[in-house]
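Workshop exercise sheet. Pairs work together: one partner reads the sequence aloud, the other fills in the structure field after running the prediction. Swap roles for the next sheet.
Pair: D.N. / O.F.
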Amino acid sequence: MWNGRPGLRPAASVPTDPADDLGVPPVRPTTRQVLALTCLGALLVGAAGPVPGSRPAREVVGLPGLDRPVRVTVDTWGVSHIRAENSDDLFFAQGYTAARDRLFQIDTWRRDGLGELSEVLGSAYVAQDTASRLFLYRGDMQKEWESYPAGTREIATEFAAGINAYIDWLADNPAAMPQEFQKLGYRPARWKPEDLVRIRTHALGDNLRNELARAQITCADGIGGTKAFRKLEPARTPEVPAGLAPCDLPADVLATYDLATAGVTFPTGTTTPPSPAPAPAADPFAGAAGGSNAWALAPGRTASGRPVLAADPHRASSGAPANRYLVHLSAPGINVIGAGEPWNPGVSFGHNGHIAFGLTNMPVDQNDLYVYELHPDDPTRYRYRDGWESFRTVQEDVAVKGAAPARASLGFTRHGPVVKVDEAKKRAYAVRSVWTEPGTSPYLGSLAFQRAKNFSEFTRGLAAWKTPGSHLVYADARGDIGWVPVGMVPRRTGAGYDGLLPVPGDGRYEWDGFHSQDEMPRTLNPEQGYFATANEYNFPPGHPVTPAYEWHPRFRKERLDEVLSATRNATVQDSLNLQTDQKSLFATRLVPYLRTLASDDPDTRKALDVLRGFDGVIAEGSSGAALFEIWSMAVLRPAWLKKVAPRSAGNPWYFAVPEAGLMLESFADPDRWFGPGGAAVRDRLLLDTLPAAFRILAGARGPDPAAWRWGDLQTHTFRHPLGGTFGPVPRGGSYQTVQYSAYNLLNLQQMVGPVFRMAVDVGDWDASRAVNAPGQSGDPTSPHYGDLHRLWAGNGTFPLVYTPSAVERNARKHLVLLPAGRQPT
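Structure field:
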């Protein structure tokens, strides 16, 4: 049970080198130096270009599969600018370049998603492979390819061929094999085009775990107790579906799903996997929700008279390398630069010289948990309507290193993969997901707008986008800005069926197709001169489509509105500064409740003094921020939960995405939440929790609040999966700030935050900026493995150069890819 007490420890500031653990030379000396985390230092690093008088290195590689020569210029910051003479060669070269920089990462992603880890890592991974195979796309492949933008199959074929070309090159150049493969003792696998689209488990499925948590809370406190769990928008009072017994749901019902979506763990440099049946509630902080910010400013609000578009996605932020990869793709008819997932062709954030685009997560509810009654005499059948249906079973052999193949038995109902069978209680459980539908490979819909030149072409291309649910933000060189929400939204049928709780799978609760993209709202050139989104509910009141009921609290969006609505003559740098804004509107609204309170307890008085002088900025160097975060999130909120949901307050899923906005609502309307005399209950709650927070900090950081620093408590570390780190480094921000930081309350390590971010000057493309930490490469021997870490840690960025002249001025290396047998010129 959560006890409200975080683990506090001093922050180190010297990054260790992941190469040390892999037995290779250090990446670069600067990763052993103390980080100077100042904006000035970061900007100096970001501004640095090639050494005057130096000439870029040149390498020529002959590759079977190319039709014409391809030229790749790697710039100072590790971004590959690929120029090809045709589209096929372009995406072939993108696959080759992605493999060259990120081979171990993308090979691990592929093996994990396809359920092929045991083949190289041994029998301990059979359970994880079996779980992953449950969620592969198993439908008609022709329909699958036809569900994506035109040409996707050809693009995927070339992209996979490019990856394979690099793997073949390594066979001829074994000394260049990435150290991870050498250490683990296996070779990278060759790719098929289908591998890119069949894997679904890296998608953002959103509320499946919340369905289970809400059922557990309902079991403990009744359905009314769930009001403290997540704010529902539009307003909704959940109902227990007929036929569901919330208290009968096993705590481990989602263990198989969690294993399938967990990623691969190599703890302490070994190949020991996570437990094959982890308890879902064991580490809710690992499931902390990602998010994003994105906005577009119209010409009337900028100094240049051109739009500015900014985006900073918030995903799991501790991996090295990160899960975004910057690339520039140029061929006749396409000239796009930006970031995407390294295993996908194209980009999903960036610009193409005509339009700019970014996105934030829209938490479309695309997964549901179904509960089935088993036949009393035959556990291979389940009740459906007035009869019994048989599970569909697929038997597969899982190759196992050093052992005979393991037999995997995969069960499916008409709704989806079976994740648990409880024969003793005559129940089975399955996950229904859009992942079983054609065309739901995440982000691949981005290929539709790589060549778009205006808002009409952009929106037309988004008609086929299915996953993940996203807010697409748009700007173009003609001065237009806009917003298009996209995602596959199920039409749920059945009394009270809203996706907030598990439902019986007996036919009373079904999906009746999906809403079309034409039913969704959109905005072009809003009157206020900007559009911003921060994962909040932003559909017009009364809109007939409800993508979900669970959204992020509105603090970040309201802070964006506060700044952007007052902005005139904005620059790209202003948007970059706003991405690192640490003002917490949660803090500025909570602290005033302390103004009239008094106490005879000395620690309470000291805490009141600190917080009354706190400006609400969750800065690394702030003592007020340190006390506010420990008090509000680690002490006050758990105590508040005990008041409003006393029997379920210990449910760890309350803390995966802390719903601080509901606590503020209760303080503003105390009689409704606490009963008659609610204001006195509120004030006593505030006072009683202050001394505990003060003593936690005094014990960890000393009795003088002037010595406390939030950045000494909240830190960030990039970790290579086989060992080695960059960090820890101090981090500011919180769950409620624009500079988003989802941290683990048990140890205050940042888990989710902006690792990649960009701001685009729409029209003066070379003036755009970006960063992608810790570096573009995933190879610890590469100079671009950790070269952006210091820049990122100081909130810096680098020029996202685009024009040929700017690319050449900042070139570090020229790589020429030639068709096999052709001589370089």
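Discussion prompt: Confidence is low (pLDDT under 50) at residues 1-47, 267-282. What would you look at next?
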